[in-house]
Design goal:
7-stranded mixed β-sheet, 44% helix, 6-stranded mixed β-sheet, 3 domains, 458 residues, flat, 15 helices, Four Helix Bundle (Hemerythrin (Met), subunit A)
């Protein structure tokens, strides 16, 4: 059975009309196929120009008729994104032009690229490690400024370098032990117990810091899930509208107006929040309102930050203090004393003094600057940490945790006096788990799952 063509092609810009549309090729015949449907305006063919030079000419359809005037460039592997020969057409962003151009490339022997196949080839050809390849996907899906910066940092290798430093230190431990065990007659200094313990402790602490970075990395990528909770008519929907800058949620004086959770994304205090406006928390005989209250409590359980709204124009009730206590137990909590434009009747008690608070007026936006300051204090940027050094997905976290647990077991084995060969089994397990982070020892089904989330053409 003949193998499928190794040269892939795809439209690499989003569907629909646009100023620019890009057709991309990669594979052993990429340049040859590109030349087959491109006619430069000058006599020299595409391959007679230096690589990575933009050449002006006509893009031809499968019948050889011009369909657009474009810029074309090519690169020779391994000095390309994929590590293979590549070519790219920069066309006008007409869906019809791109479709006819892609059809012409197929007629000359290219095949349709699968999701993420260009980046997958870059990974397989050693142009990117797996952490960098995942960063490409994160960059494509970035929903906020900090998430984009972090993905760009990972793409340049910030996380990979951090992992490599731990990996290299553990390899040194392995190499020294094997040298002592395999060549007992050689004059090789054996590790002293305290030296070995320090080497393992240093890497264990580095792995602890790495796994601890996952919470912030996930929040940078996706935003912090932030539940706005309180009694009916406390001003939750008004606060959501004030933060997003338009009337996203219905606001009335009728208790129980919000029956379902309403979500929006906003940046506040340099932190991206995924705001969830919830139904007012109260006992009710209305089955629909009961469902809304249940969803509100679930939103609290899943939140990374909880904003508890109290109506400071009304006396505080037992349920207010109980709600604050419950929130503090679940996630970082900020109490907002709403309706500061009205005479205050809420008395501040020690029961409420277990979380930071700020007076606001959700209707006018007064006091939201103080809220932004409290949020920035609650989620400060780590000092000395470069963009891209944090773990950002569950796969990375699980691999780092397995490496951390294996190094801990090796230290415990050392303290228990276990023989070096048994201790090294744990170190080898840690190295294997670290290899999964960068792709040195990752299974094919894992890579398939990673690249399946990519768009076609990338």
């Amino acid at each position: 059975m003949p193998l499928p063509p190794d040269t892939i092609a795809a439209i690499s810009t989003p569907p629909g009309p646009g100023a620019i549309g890009v057709l991309r090729l990669s594979g052993s015949r990429a340049v040859q196929i590109a030349e087959g449907c491109f006619r430069p305006l000058r006599a020299k063919s595409l391959s007679q120009h230096p690589p990575r030079t933009l050449v002006y000419g006509d893009l031809l359809d499968r019948e050889g008729q011009p369909i657009d005037r474009v810029l074309c460039t090519y690169s020779r592997g391994p000095a390309s994104y994929t590590g293979e020969d590549t070519a790219e057409f920069q066309c006008h962003g007409s869906p019809m032009v791109l479709s006819l151009g892609l059809d012409a490339l197929f007629s000359l022997g290219a095949r349709q690229a699968g999701p993420g196949e260009f980046t997958r080839r870059a990974f397989l050809n050693g142009k990117l490690d797996l952490a960098q390849a995942e960063a490409v996907g994160d960059l494509l899906e970035a929903k906020n400024r900090e998430g984009a910066r972090h993905a760009a940092g990972q793409l340049t290798g910030a996380l990979s370098r951090k992992i490599e430093a731990i990996y290299s230190a553990l390899v040194d431990v392995m190499a020294h032990f094997h040298a002592v065990l395999d060549y007992p007659d050689e004059d090789i200094d054996p590790f002293r117990m305290e030296e070995l313990d320090k080497a393992l402790l240093d890497q264990y602490q580095a792995l602890c810091a790495l796994t601890a970075s996952y919470r912030r990395g996930r929040y940078l990528r996706d935003g912090i899930p932030c539940a706005i909770v309180g009694r009916p008519n406390a001003g939750k929907s008004s606060l959501l509208n004030a933060l997003v800058g338009y009337d996203r949620a219905i606001v009335t004086d009728i208790p129980g107006t919000t029956r379902d959770t309403v979500e929006e994304r906003v940046e506040l205090g340099g932190v991206t929040l995924r705001l969830v406006d919830t139904a007012g928390l109260r006992d009710s005989d209305d089955p629909i309102e009961q469902m809304g209250v249940a969803r509100s409590r679930r939103a609290m359980e899943e939140a990374g930050l909880i904003l508890v709204l109290l109506d400071q124009s009304q006396p505080a009730g037992r349920e207010d203090a109980a709600l604050v206590r419950q929130a503090v137990e679940l996630a970082p909590t900020i109490i907002l004393l709403n309706k500061m434009d009205l005479p205050p009747r809420l008395e501040w008690t020690s029961e409420l003094d277990i979380a930071p608070h700020a007076p606001i007026c959700a209707k006018t936006g007064l006091g939201l600057g103080d809220l932004a300051e409290l949020i920035s204090r609650e989620f400060p940027r780590e000092k000395g940490q470069q963009a891209g050094e944090l773990l950002t997905n569950q796969r990375q976290m699980e691999a780092a945790q397995r490496a951390q647990a294996a190094v801990l077991r090796s230290r415990e084995a050392l303290e228990a006096g276990v023989t070096p060969d048994a201790l090294l089994t744990d170190v080898e397990e840690a190295l294997s788990a670290l290899g999964e982070l960068t792709g040195q020892s990752v299974r094919e089904d894992v890579t398939n799952r990673i690249f399946s989330r990519f768009c076609v053409g990338k």
